[in-house]
Predict the structure of NADP-dependent oxidoreductase domain-containing protein.
Amino acid sequence: MSSIKQKILNNGNVIPTVGLGVYETDPKKCTDLVYEALKVGYRHVDSASIYKNEQEVCDGISKWLKEDSSHKREDVFYTTKLWDADHGYEPAKKAIKLMLEKAKDIGYIDLILIHTPKTSYKKRHGAWKALEEAYEAGTVKNIGISNYGIKHVKEVLAYPDLKVVPAINQVEIHPWLGRKDLVEFCRQNKITPEAYSPLVRGQKMTDPLLLSLAKKYNKSAGQILIRWSLEEGFITLPKTETMSRLAENFDVFDFELSPEDIKTLSDLDEYYISGWDPTIYPLDDEK
C-alpha cells in the first residue's frame, strides 16, 4: 500500500505530498480553515501574495503550533508566491520582506514561488536573484517557480549567475491535463512537479469514468483524483472551503489505484485548462 506522505526535494528538504490550497479562500475563514486542516492531519498549506490571505494562513498555523507543545514548526510546510507586480530584484526583495513579516509568528517561510512568468526576462531574473538571497539567508527554506512552461524553465536554468535550481514547478495538472512533456522535463532537471487544481475546480466531477472508479473503490470522485495525482508522483494541492471536506480530501492514503485505472484516467488527457495557462506566455528577447 502506497502511503508516502512526503517527498524529498533536490536540496534534501522534504515536502508533504498533500497540501491545502487556499486560492480565493475568504480571509475571514482562512485562519480557522487552516487550523482545522492541521488538526485533520494536513501539514502543508499553499498561499500566495495575490490571494490576500497570507497573514490569516500564518495565523492558523501559529494557532495550531501554540495549542500543543508536541506541535513542531518543522512539521508544517508553508508556501507563498511572488506576484507579477513584484518581479524585478528590488521589488522582489521588498515583497519577500513583507511576506516574512506576515510569517514572523511562525519564524520562516518553507517555500516561495515566482507565481507566473508573465513579465520580462529582466524582471524574472531579478526576482530569482532576490529569492536566491533569501534562500541563502535561511529565512526561506526552498524556492521555486509556478506556471512555468518548458521554455521558461530552460530560461531559469540558463541564468549565467544561477546558484539555486528551482525545487518546485507548480502548475495545473489532473487527468485531463497531464502535461507529460513538461513533467518529464522538470524531473530530468531534478525539479519536482506540483499539481494545483487536482480537482479540476469541480468541472469534471460528473465524468462517467470518474464516477465509475469512485464506485469501484468506494471513494468520492475527489479522492480518486487526488489519489491519481499521488500515484503519478505529484505533490498535490486540493482546495476546499468546506470544513467537512477537509478530512475527505486528506483520507487518500489507505488505498491505491490499479495500474490499469491510472492509465485509463491518464488517457483522458485533452489539455483541458480549468482556469488559466501562463505556461504558454511568450518569452521576450530583452536581456
